[in-house]
């Protein structure tokens, strides 16, 4: 802060020095090109995926015409390509449009009760899947999620959750060959 000599009005007061032009210009440029942050994120994720795919230990004898590196190489390359194309678009003046289709009132506070209930349900399912098996833990997950999201059909929801859980267990365990823990129901199902 500096003080200037008294002017015609006779009042001397402190005034702020204007910010250096380069600092203001840099901030303005970064604000106008904030989408470049997404480009950097996509570039980092694409590089990570490609690095992981290229350093993957693959036995040639176990590999068919399309090996385990194929999908990560395609995805990583696509991420890098999208990052470059988005950066070019942003630098040419392209801007993302504001979301207009959302029916969300941004002035309302977050519903932390629902978030905490869902987090607790997911955590409980992760802890219980080992000792109780997927059919029981999955049923608790489905029923708990429905309850946390507002469903209050106490007679119908547990039945639907049990059917969904058993169907998911059957699909993964028997049809897809992905073993899920059965828990105490292992001999029954």
From TrEMBL:
It comes from the Bacteria. This is Tripartite tricarboxylate transporter TctB family protein. Residues 1-28 are annotated as: Disordered. Keywords: Membrane, Transmembrane, Transmembrane helix. It holds the Pfam family TctB. Residues 38-181 form the DUF1468 domain. The chain crosses the membrane at residues 35-54, 66-88, 115-147, 159-180. InterPro entries: DUF1468.
């Amino acid at each position: 802060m500096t003080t200037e000599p008294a002017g015609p009005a006779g009042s001397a007061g402190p005034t702020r020095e204007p910010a250096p032009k380069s600092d203001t210009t840099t901030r303005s440029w970064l604000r106008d090109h904030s989408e470049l942050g997404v480009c950097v994120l996509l570039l980092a994720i694409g590089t990570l995926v490609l690095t992981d795919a290229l350093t993957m230990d693959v036995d040639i004898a176990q590999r068919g015409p399309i090996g385990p590196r194929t999908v990560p190489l395609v995805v990583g390359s696509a991420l890098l390509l999208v990052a470059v194309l988005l950066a070019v678009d942003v630098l040419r003046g392209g801007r993302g449009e504001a979301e207009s289709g959302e029916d969300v009132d941004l002035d309302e506070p977050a519903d932390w009760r629902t978030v905490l209930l869902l987090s607790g349900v997911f955590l409980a399912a992760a802890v219980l899947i080992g000792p109780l098996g997927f059919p029981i833990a999955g049923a608790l997950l489905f029923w708990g999620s429905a309850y946390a999201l507002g469903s209050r059909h106490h007679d119908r929801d547990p039945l639907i959750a049990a059917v969904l859980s058993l169907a998911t267990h059957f699909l993964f365990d028997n049809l897809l060959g992905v073993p899920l823990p059965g828990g105490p129901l292992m001999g029954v199902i």
